Amino acid sequence: EEYEYDSKFRLYLQSKLPNPHYRPEVAAQCTILNFIVTPQGLEEQILAMVVNVEKPELEQEKQALVRKQNDFKLALSRLEDELLSQLSEADPSIILDNNSLIEGLEKTKATSKQITEQVLSANETEVEINRSRELYRPVAAEGSMLFFLVNQLCIIEHMYQYSLDSFVTFLDKAIDKTEQVDDVKERTNRLVEMIRRVVFRWVNRGLFEDHKLIFCTMLAFRLFQLKQLSEDFVPNHFQFLLRGPSEARFQNPLDWLPNQAWGMI
């Protein structure tokens, strides 16, 4: 049975599932938006935030350039549509004698060439801006790593929930507390150190005593994996520490003890 409905009617469905699956007939008629934050996406957001604080003119130039590039793409698309429309409406028998059409094509071609040159120039400018922004990449990578590390604490205790807004607030505090220096590399190192210290203190004061050592261990091993500590990190040794040996070297004499547990002894 069919029912009439207003053309302005909109239905919004929200799911907390990390990877929801809908029936094909539902998915085909819906626009599915994924609001889950990824490490790479969060790193880009934090990079923009840090650069906006450290070099506001650089981030403003970056945003203006992005808008300009979008305008270029729209202009090229509009010119292509106009060109196709003129050609489709023209009479094939007299197309070579249609002066207005030829003039329009020449104008479209010239405009398209100008826009293409501007796009190339904008791309070169973007490379220079990105090169300057990349100097603050370690700070963004540190922030992204810490956020996803902190979010894993809910596996230990469900009450450990940390919002992105709260996390960003403490990032801002860490940036404000960091001592100003002229050298960008030194400034970046101090930002990384201060962000790690501020976030650690913020999270650690809200943990149970039994879980504080676990959080320290999680952070330490994560820094080992990222090679941010002076000691060498051997992945095989780390896996051995977590899971124990894959095979027991001695025969298990106990019937009540599983072989895997005996191998770990």
Please state the structural category.
Answer: mainly alpha
- Give the % helix: 55-70%
- Using the CA coordinates, give the radius of gyration: 29 Å
Shape: extended
- Average pLDDT value? 86
Give a structural overview.
- The chain is mainly α and 265 residues long.
- The chain contains ten helices and no strands.
- The model has no long low-confidence stretch (mean pLDDT 86).
Layout of helices and strands:
Blueprint lengths: L23 H4 L11 H16 L1 H34 L9 H35 L3 H15 L12 H14 L6 H21 L4 H17 L9 H9 L15 H6 L1
Provide keyphrases for this structure.
mainly alpha; 265 residues; 65% helix; 10 helices
In short:
This protein is mostly helical and 265 residues long.
